[in-house]
Structure formats: structure tokens, C-alpha cells
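As a warm-up, study this chain.
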Amino acid sequence: MLWYVVVLCLLAVSWAQDCQVANFQVMQNFNKTRYAGTWYAVAKKDPEGLFLIDNIVAKFTIEEDGKMTATAKGRVIILNNWEMCADMLATFEETPDPAKFRMNYWGVASYLQTGNDDHWVIDTDYDNYAIHYSCRLLDSDGTCLDSYSFIFSRHATGLRMEDQPTVTHKKMDVCLLGKYRRVAHNGFCETS
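Now compare it with the structure written out below.
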């Protein structure tokens, strides 16, 4: 009986959830200088198309002019069976909301994906975890048809136990609970 009550409560919450992207809350008083540095992707929700698979490490830098840039490295599979590490570069255009950027990105190799996506910092404590979200394609009702998201940690070993409830809650806030998969860090890109 308890199981049915729990399922009904979860269904009620999911039905009542506001999944319109414009209503997603981002990090208040975001400080890009504190955000800068190395982040390890420990979980991700993939978009459509070629995307970094695992061993994903992003390094955010604040340049002398105050603009944020990033490099990222991660394992990809191209041509159906060729494993390699991809090096990606990004620049960020600021918006009126300091936690919402437009990210222009490209691969160092020409066959890697390029694009211009949203880069929203949903939440971070700057020292341990950060939750990133991007919607590539909005539906007519304001929900997202093609999104991706990263759960970042400052530690390659993963999130601290005390951060997991906050991260889980934020996954629900962006309507992606249950859509993430773990990102392995096995040294593949350190030796490639």
C-alpha cells in the first residue's frame, strides 16, 4: 500500500512540475571568478548527436578582459568505432543574468561538433559541485525537446555525500531527474 502512495505522490509532483525552460531558476548572484578552474563531469544528460562520452574535464578561465573561456577534453567515438580524446574550446557571451551565457564551442579537430548553445549555471557551491543546463531546441509549449546537462565536481572521484540531495533536487527542477548517466574517469584521456 505504501508503494502505491509513493508512486502517486511522485506522479502528482511530476504532473505539477513546471518544465517550461523560461521558468527554470539559475544560480543567484553567480560569480564567474569563483566558478573558474577545473571541473570533472560526474554525470550528464546527453543531447542529440555526437557528444563527449566520458573522462570529461572542463577548465574555465577568466581572461584579462573579464570574458570567460573554457577548454574541455573527453572521450568520443567517431566513425562508429574509433575511440579518441576530443579537445574542445569555448567562448562565452554574457547576458543580463550573470548565470546565463551563450556558449560558442568548437572542436580542435574539424570533424568535431561546433555550435552556439545556452550555458546556464543552475546551481553551484563553487568548491564542490556545479549543475549546468542547456536547451538546444524549444518546443512550442516552452518545454525543451533537445537538452543536455552536466553535473560537475571539483573532484574526479565524484560528489560528496552531503551535496547529493541538493543535486538531486536541482535535477528535478530542470525536469531531468532519472535522465542522467554516470561519467567515468578512468584516465583514458590522460594517456591518449
